[in-house]
Amino acid sequence: MPYTIAVIGTGYVGLVTGTCFAESGCQVNCVDIDHKKIDMLERGEIPIYEPGLDILLARNIRERRIKFTLDLERSVLASDVIFLCLPTPPGEDGSADLKYILGVAEQIGTILHNNPSAGYKAVVDKSTVPVGTSELVRDTIRRNAPGADFDVVSNPEFLREGYAVEDFMRPERVVIGTQSKRAEEIMRELYEPYVRSGNPIFVISERSAEIAKYAANSFVAMRISFINEMANFCEQVGANIDDVRAAIGSDSRIGKKYLYPSVGYGGSCFPKDVRAILKSAADNSTTLQVIESVERVNKEQPVRFFEKIRAHFGDLTGLRFAVWGLAYKANTDDVRESPAFVIIDQLLAAGAEVIAYDPEAMEGARKKYGRTVTYGAGMYETVRNADALVILTEWNEFRNPDFERLRECLNNHVIFDGRNLFNTAEVAAKHFTYYSVGRATTSADKVVE
Ligand SMILES: NC(=O)c1ccc[n+]([C@@H]2O[C@H](COP(=O)([O-])OP(=O)(O)OC[C@H]3O[C@@H](n4cnc5c(N)ncnc54)[C@H](O)[C@@H]3O)[C@@H](O)[C@H]2O)c1
Questions:
Q1: Which listed residue, 149, 212, 275, 358, has the most CB atoms within 10 A of its CB?
Q2: How far is CA 424 from CA 311, 333, 416, 418, 420, in A?
């Protein structure tokens, strides 16, 4: 029999989780405290940009398999499984702030206490949380509802924004942290439709599951910082990071993924998760030296890129920069900890003017910058009368621009590309001075050192 599920927190993870479980036949109640979000979702509007989610959500709303509500109590009581998809933002000291998770755990405890016949509940933590959080959630619920029948499960989510539906529907693996056979059985049943092609479900301890998520994110972040450090070295010694990347990426021990030089990683996960595992390790008397360096390199990367702009122009006061790309990566509207913002901050602080364009993320930037930054209606409108073009997100639509049109629009024929979207020789042939990451800077007729 299909399960009834409550998804608490209807953001990137919660909305995708709820929609995808509804698609496999579960009855899903998505709960949030954000009235506006719930109103939008009830009207069938999606508050985030996530490819493919709209069609899936519309179908499941139509089939009445998914509902949106502010009512936590009714949703908890109606459900067999309660997924916590709540924020775990960084606290002042870098640790994951557990106030949302433990606050909801407290509420669930009270609800179960006030409703002694509520029956068994599996409370599943999908948020990214430090090792030991499952115990904290269990203790919190137990303290409020000593007689309640429940298990707490750690089920970290590995989806990538921009590919979230695909990742959820066809996960490379599912990790379930539990010692409870009852909870394990429910979780296996829930995920069975998504692993039919044979991808594994790992049932491990809660603590191992919690660390697995941080280890995965830190490892990918490490690859990004590694290639960025190599790119910086290539710049210093006149080598080409594209060639180096191709040479090492073909080695099956290394592989090609997440080896793209850039202005650094950002988003709602890598930066905060790297900091959180460092803090969690420190709290447990451990130093994670590799991960410390990963963070240090990433912090410096956008600043290094900005320095190229400054070195080219000298004084930036009054200059106008057209920025293509605000999201921390392509295919998302997410601007949390976007490296683009680090660079824009520096441009503004240096007295420059910024006009920006992003296919999906301008709303997020408006929230941060208000009128300090202006926004273009499209790629070419943005570059008109700008002193240089600065590319900060690897959207596909930026990959093959009309260089002739760019030349007509820009005051100076200079491109700073923080995503290495173009071939250096081709851009030089179009009569641009072209700065990128880990490759020689080229101009129409000479290589600029
Ligand atoms: N975004 C990702 O790509 C991703 C991937 C894997 C894991 N994660 C992790 O999943 C968790 C959630 O991330 P997200 O990106 O979905 O966050 P989000 O900020 O997009 O969504 C969180 C939602 O929770 C709601 N909320 C806050 N307090 C609430 C409460 N008391 N009751 C009900 N709803 C409440 C917020 O209003 C918001 O809608 C985080 O721990 C994150 O690290 C995120």
A1: 358
A2: 19, 28, 11, 13, 9
Of 174, 204, 234, the residue at which a domain comes to its end is 204
Is 61 in the same domain as 134? yes
Asked if residue 235 is part of any domain, the answer here is no
Using the atom order of ligand 1, give the atom closest to the CA of residue 129: 41
HSE, side-chain direction, 13 A CA sphere, residue 66: 28
Backbone torsion region of residue 322, taken as left when φ is above 0, otherwise alpha when ψ lies between -120 and 50, otherwise beta: beta
Q: Which domain range does residue 420 map to?
A: 249-448
Residue to mutate (ligand 1; options 157, 158, 214; most atoms within 8 A of CB): 157
Co-location of 195 and 258 in the same domain? no
pLDDT tens for 307-363 read: 999 999 999 999 999 999 999 999 999 999 999 999 999 999 999 999 999 999 999
Cβ 159 under 6 angstroms from ligand 1: yes
Number of compact structural domains in the chain: 2
Q: Are residues 88 and 189 in the same domain?
A: yes
Chain centroid to Cα 102, Å, comes to 23
Q: Is 89 in the pocket of ligand 1 (CB under 6 A)?
A: no
Q: Give the global pTM.
A: 0.93
Residue of 26, 30, 269, 409 marked catalytic = 269
**88 Cα to the center of ligand 1, angstroms:** 7
What number does the ligand 1 atom closest to the CA of 10 have? 39
Place of tokens 């001075």: 433
In whole angstroms, what is the distance from residue 56 CA to residue 166 CA?
11
CATH of the domain at 424: 3.40.50.720
Same domain, 345 and 424: yes
Q: Is 30 a catalytic residue?
A: no
Residue 371 inside a domain? The answer is yes
55 and 134 in one domain? yes
- Whether 228 is in a domain gets the answer no
Together in a domain, 197 and 258:
no
Give the list of residues 6+ apart from residue 248 with CB closer than 8 angstroms, or none: 254, 259
Would the CB of 269 count as within 6 Å of ligand 1?
Answer: yes
Q: What is the pLDDT of residues 241-272, one digit of tens each?
A: 999 999 999 999 999 999 999 999 999 999 99
